[in-house]
Amino acid sequence: MGDASMVGLMGRVTGTVGPGLVGEVIVRVRGGAEHFLAHPADGRSRITTGTVVMVVEHLPPRTVYVTPAYDS
Q: What's the predicted TM-score (pTM) here?
């Protein structure tokens, strides 16, 4: 799956994402759901478990940068 096809996909945080942390998200791709290592897109935000996020950058093979999908 190329970088462009991951960008814009929605996922859910399964391990807190934040500065100094390597978080985890689950994203529906390729007809299933896969886990990716995750970092905050802005480098500052702390995104808690359960938050719906959008992938803004993908670094193959399993790293994504994410931002919350909805304002809270």
A: 0.90
